[in-house]
Amino acid sequence: MALLHRAELHPTKLELLAAWLPDRRWYEGSTDDDVVRVAAYRFDDPAGAVGIETMLVSTGDSAVHQVPLTYRDAPLDGGERWLVGTTEHSVLGRRWVYDACGDPVYVAALAHAIFTGGGQADEFFEVDGRLERRDPSAVVVGSGTPGAEVPVADGPSLVVTDEDYATVITTDRVQLTVVRRLDGGDRPIGATLTGVWDGQSTPLPLAHAVTR
Fold first, then answer.
1. What does the CA dihedral 21, 79, 205, 198 come to, rounded to 10 degrees?
2. How many helices (H) and strands (E) does the chain have?
3. Which residues of the chain have pLDDT under 70?
4. pTM of the entire structure?
5. Contacts of 200 (CB under 8 A, 6+ apart)
6. d(CA 209, CA 173)
7. Using one digit for the tens of pLDDT, what is the confidence trace for 161-187?
8. What are the C-alpha distances in Å from 6 to residues 11, 26, 137?
9. Do strands 35-43 and 51-59 pair parallel, antiparallel, or not at all (unpaired)?
10. What is the pLDDT at residue 158?
11. Residue 183 to residue 199: CA distance in whole angstroms
């Protein structure tokens, strides 16, 4: 379950991405394009400490881009390369926003969803002391089996490589590929995470994984 806050962020997530995206190898667009949210989905951090949100965004006439983010209340040790920026959250205070492909909490959550057939976390707002569920804007599902063994994806062994259309995350036991441009051209290998959202009724591969 993801507990959300009705809060203001300065700068906003989209403002952070507008400054960060143009330098990515896989980005298709220009620095003048507005970044528009298409949909999003979240995973749970079992420890409840790190927010994990994957945003699907578009810019101009470009393909939809997939941008997994993690939100932390303190800097990620050794994570300078992955820092998207910081933002002031009106409820939680300063938040450090990272490209989640370099964050071991996200990597473990992604591997778990893929190999166990998991999906996105249910999202709730607290309203007058009760929880109010928010309808998902994207629905994702892994191709694996509930209870299946999940290869360990620990931080010290992460090797992350950006490619033209994807980001590849390699650990001692698993290789995960996060599709960055969701134009239907990806040919997944191994177990997969697929998703649908408004305007995309046919499941598209979002990520795939093979054990090593």
1. -60
2. 2, 15
3. 1-7, 125-130, 153-156
4. 0.92
5. 64, 182
6. 10
7. 999 999 999 998 899 999 999 987 778
8. 15, 32, 17
9. antiparallel
10. 87
11. 13
